[in-house]
Design brief:
This protein is of the alpha+beta class and 548 residues long. It has two domains: 19-248 and 275-280 and 361-440, FAD/NAD(P)-binding domain (3-Layer(bba) Sandwich), CATH 3.50.50.60; 447-541, Rieske Iron-sulfur Protein (3-layer Sandwich). It contains nine helices and 25 strands. Strands 3, 4, 5, 6, 11, 12, 13, 14 and 15 form a nine-stranded mixed beta sheet that branches. Strands 1, 2, 7, 8, 9, 10, 16 and 17 form an eight-stranded mixed beta sheet that branches. Strand 16 and strand 17 form a beta hairpin. The structure holds flavin-adenine dinucleotide (FAD) and FE2/S2 (inorganic) cluster (FES). Flavin-adenine dinucleotide is lined by residues 46-52, 69-72, 76-79, 81-85, 215-216, 240-242, 245, 260, 262, 294, 310, 354-356, 379, 382, 384-388, 390, 519, 522.
Length: 548
């Protein structure tokens, strides 16, 4: 049976995909004015996701003048496409993190995420708003490909890192699972866009400014120039664009872009215990962070909760490397959810995907942009824990700007390079990525293939000796883009699920109209629209028959 999910045609221009996530759908796009004048401020922040808004919130409370700009709306990046578990149960596993960083740093890491959850709770109490925040337990249980010894190793490492954990024999609410699990106490969840809405209102009330639909096209240590040629001069520049668009190469060699998928299904209210569930990941997949499932509940309506199930990750633009297509991921999630939660496919009302950046050594990069001026900062390498990383960025970057000591500065320093200890992972990702890039590079089809492109599908086609990405929309118009990524010229691949051109090299993504959806690219792909009426004529000149 065909499932009806929320797809908003055209939202790909303002969010990073064609599917509309529950968070955006339930709150609506949070848009402010477009910047139409030149400005001077203490701090300019580019990007209004959890990172940018958290940084602005902390700075405004420290008495700084702050301007935030976003080329979409508040939360239109990956924060709108998250699942918003707030955890210190880190998905890279403490036993791995300990190996690379040592026990002391693993403990500091746990402390930083605990502090982030506590801080969110304090902010909500202090500023008195509701964003469905809830403290709850999380349960880490074994994927069938993993062994009990992983749980034992993680139990020891998490205890050493100071987490409140215990091994339990049963996982509440989970069907068809007989093994043990680790219970993590005092984890949390919230509605990310309700949280950002409340913080944005506070920032504005305290004299800060937020401009949406305002793209930074030039960034340096003096400030920003926007797409409308407006200049913002600032003492400090913070690039919170998820993938830093002011850093051409260095940071993009230290992290890898993955896509992750989510389904949301209605379940009768209170029919499941309110906890977080995570499995340990599929060790059969040849990935450094084995793709794992992550599940939570969300208040939905008077009679239902929404069960939000995520997983099926793969490197961006390389779904085929796991022998799957992007759009098939939801069916795998449904099958898994059916087995473990009795979910019926016809009750799935949301599906969407998003992007995470996996840092080579498992820790995000938050602080001064390496090799840049001292007043320029970045937040990236969020991994599956980007909610707490965003809150940590708020505290850490505001301390760096206001000259306060922060215990976590070295831990998150973007300039670190753990090649010796994280080298194995680094080289495996690099070599595997290169191999798969060439293996699955799109084949350029003969011009005649244009006729065979079905509605809502795309192909790479030779047009007058040049490879072009061609998408045929539902009105039979052809959207034609150049296929060389504007970051470092890798060839982009079509993602038929989110209707985007995705770059397998460092995760840049472009809409079918060539607009940047995810960095590091910041320039759009060359684009040309051939309408249905034009197409016969245009291609007649070039002796190409595109009529179907
Ligand atoms: C499916 C999925 C599930 C996840 N689940 C969890 C979870 O349960 N827990 C957790 O902790 N983390 C989770 N994450 C990770 C987390 O959601 C992200 O790490 C986090 O939202 C990133 O926030 P951000 O502010 O750094 O980036 P974003 O939210 O992407 O914000 C960056 C902003 O910059 C803007 N921008 C980009 N370029 C420009 C420009 N040139 N000019 C102006 N603005 C620009 C974008 O429009 C965007 O709004 C998940 C991620 C995904 C995809
Ligand atoms: S993202 Fe770097 S080349 Fe495309």
């Amino acid at each position: 049976m065909e499932t009806e999910t929320h797809v908003h045609p055209g939202t790909e221009k303002i969010t990073s995909g064609a599917h509309s996530p529950y968070w955006v759908d339930s709150v609506g796009p949070l848009a402010f004015l477009k910047l139409e004048e030149d400005l001077t401020t203490d701090v300019i922040i580019i990007g209004a996701g959890i990172s940018g808004i958290s940084i602005a919130y902390e700075l405004i409370n420290s008495g700084k003048k702050v301007v935030v700009i976003d080329d979409g709306f508040v939360g239109s990046g990956e924060t709108g496409r998250t699942t918003a578990h707030l955890v210190n149960a880190l998905d890279d596993r403490y036993y791995n993190l300990e190996k690379v960083h040592g026990k002391k740093k693993a403990k500091l890491l746990a402390e930083s995420h605990r502090k982030a959850i506590d801080h969110v709770e304090e902010i909500i109490k202090l500023d008195r708003f509701d964003c469905d925040f809830k403290r709850l337990d999380g349960f880490l249980f074994l994927h069938p490909s993993d062994s009990d010894s992983s749980l034992d190793k993680e139990l020891i490492a998490t205890k050493e890192a100071g987490l409140d954990v215990e091994k339990v024999k049963k996982v509440p609410g989970l069907l068809n699972y007989r093994g043990a699990a680790i219970r993590f106490a005092r984890q949390a969840r919230f509605h990310p866009l309700k949280y950002l809405t409340a913080l944005s209102n506070i920032i504005l009330k305290k004299g800060g400014a937020i401009y949406t639909d305002t793209k930074a096209i030039k960034i340096d240590h003096t400030g920003v120039v926007t797409d409308k040629k407006r200049r913002i001069i600032a003492d400090h520049v913070v690039v919170a664009t998820n993938s830093p668009i002011n850093n051409l190469v260095r940071m993009h060699l230290k992290q890898y872009a993955y896509r992750s998928y989510v389904i949301g299904t209605k379940v009768p209210k209170d029919s499941l215990p309110d906890v977080l569930w995570w499995d340990t990941g599929d060790f059969k997949e040849n990935a450094q962070t084995p793709p794992y499932h992550y599940v939570r509940l969300q208040e939905f309506d008077a009679t239902h909760d929404l069960l939000v199930i995520g997983g099926e990750d793969h490197p961006t633009g390389l779904a085929e490397a796991s022998e799957k297509k992007e759009e098939d991921a939801y069916a795998y999630l449904e099958a898994w959810a059916q087995k473990h939660f009795g979910v019926k496919a016809e009750n799935v009302i949301y599906k969407w995907s998003g992007q995470v950046l996996e840092p080579m050594d498992g820790i995000a990069f938050i602080g001064k942009n390496p090799g840049d001026h001292d007043n320029t900062y970045i937040v990236t390498g969020d991994s599956g824990n980007g909610m707490t990383h965003g809150v940590i960025a708020g505290m850490l970057i505001s301390d760096l700007i206001t000259g306060k000591h922060n215990n976590f500065e070295d831990l998150y320093d973007p300039g670190r390079f753990k090649l010796l200890k994280a080298g194995n992972k680094f080289f495996k990702e690099l070599i595997g990525g290169l191999f798969n890039y060439f293996r699955y590079k799109p084949k350029t089809e003969e011009p005649d293939e244009l006729r065979l492109i079905a509605k809502n599908e795309a192909k790479v086609v030779d047009i007058k000796g040049e490879s072009k990405g061609v998408f045929r929309d539902e009105h039979d118009h052809l959207h034609i883009v150049g296929v060389e990524c504007t970051h470092l010229k890798c060839i982009v691949k079509w993602n038929n699920d989110e209707k985007s051109w995705d770059c397998p090299c460092h995760g840049s993504r472009f809409s079918y109209e060539g607009k940047v959806l995810n960095g590091p690219a910041s320039t759009d792909l060359p684009y040309r629209l051939i309408t249905k009426t034009d197409s016969g004529m245009f291609f007649k000149d070039e002796k190409i028959n595109v009529k179907r």
